[in-house]
Write a structure and sequence with these properties.
Layout (H helix, E strand, L loop, with lengths): L5 H30 L4 E3 L2 H9 L6 E4 L23 H5 L5 E5 L5 H9 L3 E5 L5 H14 L3 H20 L6 E7 L5 E4 L4 H8 L3 E2 L6 E3 L2 H7 L3 E6 L4 H16 L1 H4 L10 H8 L4 E5 L9 H21 L1
Parallel strand pairs: 1-2, 1-3, 3-4, 5-7, 5-9, 9-10
Antiparallel strand pairs: 5-6, 6-8
Length: about 325
């Protein structure tokens, strides 16, 4: 056996020790990077919007059916309907976290994920800005993004302040979910439509629960100051064209009040043109997940448009 002097042996030990320390540092760094780069499944449109606002979009590896409305996530795998999640499909994504509403399930699927150490975060569907802010803080805390969460919340509060500062004469409203037929479903208490009316600072005249089919006669009897219609599968251009038609109808309401109901092609045009009630169409997807980040922006757009309608009416 070759003799190695103590001094040389000491040098070798130092080199080996330094190499081991470097290897451990690299391993620790990789582990830290993996911890801070989680693979996230979003099972709720509102959640998807919050993740994007927090700067976590690049960590989302799959989305649910409602989140497919977000163009930035179209390329991701779709896990389907959030109440019918498959444990096999979710596990195949090698995700670290599943985030969705309190309605996602079934519970057995969520239990399987928890058993395999996938973190499951469930949130209440927001009915107001306070609940939305709480959801933002919960997600931000889960990913150690306190400052980002505060920033997103502050921007929403600023938008809500702008909403409150916009003064309009309309104080009562009804919300109709337009499915493309002659009639719409009116939003009662405790619905997303009701929450949107409250977000605008108005009173919902529909004092029943859930949604109910309605008619032109019912709306005529209620006489709301404003009718909000939410159309599914409508483009922004179509929505703007529809709103422009409604503004035009306001300018000509004295003439159109005598027109026959049969000449109109949809419920919101009937009410807006025949009865002279302002009717504004919004993007239904902004309310799929309750009061969402997108819903706040839509409320600002509606109030600004409503202000223009009032200005033109005078």
């Amino acid at each position: 056996m070759r003799f190695i002097p103590d001094a040389k042996r000491s040098g070798i030990n130092i080199v080996l020790g330094a190499g081991l320390a470097l290897a451990l540092f690299i391993m620790h760094s990789l582990a830290y990077a993996q911890t801070n780069a989680p693979r996230i499944i979003s099972a709720d449109l509102g959640t998807t919007q919050i993740l994007r606002a927090l700067g976590l979009a690049e960590h989302v590896v799959a989305i649910d059916l409602t989140s497919s409305r977000e163009e930035a996530f179209h390329h991701l795998p779709n896990i389907g309907y959030h109440r019918q999640l498959s444990p096999e499909g979710l596990l195949s994504l090698n995700a670290d976290v599943l985030i969705g509403s309190s309605l996602m399930g079934p519970e057995r699927t969520l239990d399987v994920l928890r058993e395999t150490h996938v973190k499951v975060i469930q949130q209440e569907t927001p009915e107001n800005l306070s609940m939305l802010t709480n959801n933002i803080f919960q997600i931000a805390k889960a990913f150690h993004l306190k400052d980002e969460g505060l920033s997103v919340a502050e921007k929403l509060v600023e938008k809500d302040t702008r909403l409150s500062a916009m003064t309009v004469k309309h104080s009562t409203a009804v919300f109709l979910l337009d499915m493309g037929g002659a009639n719409g479903s009116m939003a009662g208490m405790g619905t997303s439509g009701d929450a949107f009316i409250k977000l605008l600072g108005m009173t919902n005249l529909a004092q029943f629960n859930a949604y109910r089919e309605t008619s032109a006669e019912t709306l005529l009897a209620m006489q709301p100051d404003l009718i909000i219609t939410a159309s599914r599968n409508i483009s922004s251009d179509q929505r703007d064209q529809r709103n422009q038609r409604n503004q035009s109808h306001q300018r000509n309401q004295s003439h159109q009040r005598n027109q026959s109901l049969q000449h109109d092609q949809s419920l919101q045009r009937k009410v807006g043109s025949v009865y002279g009630i302002p009717a504004i169409n919004i993007d239904a997807s902004s309310l799929v997940a309750g009061i969402s980040v997108a819903a706040i922006d839509e409320a600002l757009r509606v109030k600004a448009l409503l202000s223009n309608v009032i200005a033109e009416a005078h």
